Structures are given as C-alpha cells and as structure tokens.
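Chain and backbone:
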Amino acid sequence: MGLRPRQITQSPAGGAATQAGPPVAGGASRSPRPSRTGARDYVPWASSEATRHVMQSNRSSNTSPEVRLRSALHRSGLRFFKHRHPEPQVSCRVDIVFPRARLAVFLDGCFWHACPDHGTRPAVHTEWWDAKLARNGDRDRRNDAELIGAGWRVLRVWEHEEIDSAVSRIRFALDPSRG
C-alpha cells in the first residue's frame, strides 16, 4: 500500500496554492478556515459521520444526469468540450462548452442549485444549509455575469429536465439562423 501524494489546491480568491493535509482526527468537526472577508469562523459542515461520508461521495463532475445529457448531445451529432474554463480570464469551469458558438452549458442539480420545483432543504443545520445554497446561487449568478461579460452565452439546464428537451434547447441555442 503506497502513500498518496498531498493534493495541491488553489485558494478560491486565486491566491497562492496550498497543500491539503490529512483528514481532521475525529472526523465530523473541521478546523476554522478563512471566510471571504478574511475573518476566521467555524464551519460545521457535517452533522454525523454518515452525513460526512455521503457529502464526500458526491461528485462535482461526471454525474449521472451530466453523462446522460452529454451522451444524448453526442448521439445527436454535436461535439463539445467538457469541464473547461472557456477563457483564461474566466474563473468558472463550465460543464459543456461549445467554443465556436461561444455557448456555455451548465447542468444544475436540483438540490445544490435550489431548484424552485424540486429543491429540498435538509432538516439539520438549516442555517448553514440555507447560507450554503444561497452562496451557490450567488456563485451561479457571478459565473453567468462573468461569462456574459466575456462575450459568451449561458444556458442552464436542470437535472430534472427531460433529456430530449434539453438537447432541443441546446440545439436551438447553437442554431446560427435564429438571429
């Protein structure tokens, strides 16, 4: 059994890279970390070991809905890039990128992006989750504005949307004759 190398991470504000150390002993608690304002505050992110395990198991890319959408797009003849920064100065990574059409497609999960139809709220740590989901929405709006400012069009698809409908919306957005 070999040792795993330490993971090098980039700070959210684009600052210096840091090394991610070993997991915190005891598991469920987390050491203080700097907030966006620079103050150090406690971040209780898991109510139990089981919750912690579930949260760590969530994928950030190549989720089942994402793979199904990409497969359907590919079957329909469309070619694209996945999980890319569309421009060097754009900080977000886009799920599906059509560079020639300058179209960025995000596939938003109902829980993580607070879908008005299907989004649910956890019953434990409600204050933390409300703030977390609000930050996700704020980040989505910032990313949209950043991409639009760089000359890109943004299309957001909900994970609950029918695949055929999503493919049709993407094809329509890619159609140069639509003006």
The radius of gyration is 19 Å. Residues 126-149 form the longest helix (24 residues).
